[in-house]
Design brief:
The chain is an alpha/beta fold. The protein has 2 domains: 8-19 and 83-210, Rossmann fold (3-Layer(aba) Sandwich); 21-78, no CATH class. It has 9 helices and 8 strands. It has a 6-stranded parallel sheet with strand order 5-4-1-6-7-8, with helices on both faces. A two-stranded antiparallel sheet has the order 2-3.
């Protein structure tokens, strides 16, 4: 079995454990206000963000803002994140057998945010890019986490929504990978062998089944 030797499962946060749509809708509302209420409905703009993500844009929101003529920075408000409905049950099942960790491009305080959502009781380790001074897709964030935990790459699995930040760099290191098709990058097409995950799921609720739970 592809996942028979796994000891640690690592997760991205945004659009993996946490639904970010509310954050981006609030940002789109600010953008619309700046532009005098001339933007299409938020649902159409979210669809445009998916299109930009499919094309490989690093920041789909930034791409939409630029398209409509804005150069302002719209802060990301983590208070508007919410766990996906299936997140806690999935983490509960997985934590009974595996060590769970976070490897995410996030600002400081990631553990506190997960605690606020009642999820930290399932998480054994948190690495965020701001706190560690390195970010995905650079391999050293993954390598540092593995070294800290004494975990070999083949004993670890990375779960995330992005081919470029999660699947490709982890697989290059020899980790197993699970792609979660949620968020703005759900339709992006693999470009090389390292972009093809060991499992491909549509909901975090499907993850325990991948591990035979």
């Amino acid at each position: 079995m592809a996942f028979s030797n796994i000891k640690w499962i690592f997760f991205d946060m945004g659009h993996t454990l946490l639904d970010e749509d509310g954050v981006h809708i609030a940002r789109l509302d600010e953008l619309n206000e700046e532009l005098g209420g001339t933007l299409p409905p938020a649902e159409e703009l979210l669809a445009e963000m998916v299109e930009f993500g499919t094309k490989g844009a690093r920041s789909p929101f930034g791409s939409v803002a630029k398209k409509y003529g804005s150069k302002r920075h719209y802060p990301y408000n983590p208070a508007l994140e919410v766990p996906f409905p299936e997140t806690e049950e999935a983490l509960s099942k997985l934590s009974a057998k595996y060590k769970l960790g976070i490897i995410a491009n996030q600002r400081g305080g990631s553990a506190h945010r997960l605690q606020a959502h009642g999820l930290m009781k399932y998480i054994d380790f948190v690495y965020s890019s701001e706190e560690m001074g390195r970010s995905k897709p650079a391999p050293d964030l993954f390598l540092s986490a593995l070294d800290t935990l004494g975990c070999a790459p083949e004993e670890a699995c990375m779960v995330g929504d992005r081919i470029d930040n999660d699947i490709r760099p982890a697989k290059r290191l020899g980790m197993k990978t699970v792609r979660l098709r949620q968020g703005f990058f759900k339709n992006r097409v693999p470009e090389c062998e390292y972009d093809i995950p060991d499992a491909d799921i549509k909901s975090i609720g499907d993850l325990p089944t991948v591990f035979g739970l």
